[in-house]
Amino acid sequence: MSKADTIIEHKTTESAMRIKGVAGGSSGNIDTVNRTINGIASTVNIDRHDEIVLPSAFAARAQKFLASNAPFLASHQHATETGEPAQIGWVTAMRLEADKVVCTFKFAQTDLGEQWWKLASDPAGKGVAFSIGFMPLTSTRKKASDLVAEFPEIKATVADSGIKPDAQLRVYTGIELYEISAVAAPSNRESVQLRATPTTEDMRNFSEILAAIKSEIKDVKNTVQTVSDDVTILRQQISEQGDVWDDSPPETPSGSHSHQADGCDDTTAPDGGDQKASPPYSPFADELFARATA
């Protein structure tokens, strides 16, 4: 499991909005026509601050978030230093699973959006990471062993982390999501851009294509072997009947002009240039040609 989380607090007069981020990622699940990617916005993994945001914590207000402008920001910025928009797109879909939150992100056609889109869609790159900006609503802080008993979905995460049973952890059970950001070095090591994985149908099609290629290769090998055998037989026949070679030139058809009859030898063309002599004629040449072109 890989996860790297950062927590930033934006103090307001009434409350503090906590921002939890996630780093890493790999290119994949990319729609270059609609400029969208899929990625994991949050998981049950323990972040660097010994905290967990449960996927179920999103449930109560997820639809309201998607119905809003659902901002997809650059590194939690609401505006650049020059006052330009820092929004690089929108969160267009969200799927809550037992151990993670999967989202679809659409990139805007702005200068900043284009910069992040190039990072996310680069086939030679590793994609982008994600971070969630939210208002904490309900949470609990207890010993890890007590939390595992209360929230079975984090049992594997706690076991894999190697933390002591009496270590204190905070689990968020309710949040109000404000935005999701594309980031370079966040907090949840598992919140990354999804890589496309082959489906069962893809693998079945690949197997069929591979079988067809192997069959074609086998047919080519058989054809080559057959031609090789034919050539061997023809060579043997030619060798056995070498005494029937006819070295005389072909007869000149009636009405045609023979340069030899005019005193020209076989190597002189009518214009005085060199002309190659015709090779000896073999009665097996026709048979060889017929087999080769069959």
Query: Please, what is the average pLDDT?
Result: 79
Strand content: 25-35%
Percent helix, as a range, is 25-40%
End-to-end span in angstroms? 62 Å
Order of helices and strands: EEEEEEHEEEHEHHEEHH
How would you characterize the largest beta sheet?
Answer: 10 strands, mixed
H/I helix tally: 6
Structural class: alpha+beta
Assign an overall shape: elongated
Estimated radius of gyration? 38 Å
Quantity of strands, as a count: 12
The count of domains is 2
Note poorly predicted spans: 1-17, 22-28, 258-264
Keywords:
294 residues, alpha+beta, 10-stranded mixed β-sheet, two-stranded antiparallel ribbon, elongated
Short description:
The chain is an alpha+beta fold and 294 residues long. The protein has 2 domains: 4-197, no CATH class; 223-249 and 260-294, no CATH class. It has helices at residues 59-67, 111-121, 144-150, 155-161, 200-240, 285-292; strands spanning 4-5, 7-11, 16-21, 30-31, 36-43, 51-53, 71-74, 87-96, 100-107, 129-143, 168-183, 187-188.
Task: Give an overview of the whole structure.
With 294 residues, the protein is α+β, with helices and mostly antiparallel strands. It has 2 domains: 4-197, no CATH class; 223-249 and 260-294, no CATH class. It has 6 helices and 12 strands. The longest helix is centred in the last third of the chain and has 41 residues, at 200-240. Residues 1-17, 22-28 and 258-264 have low confidence and may be disordered.
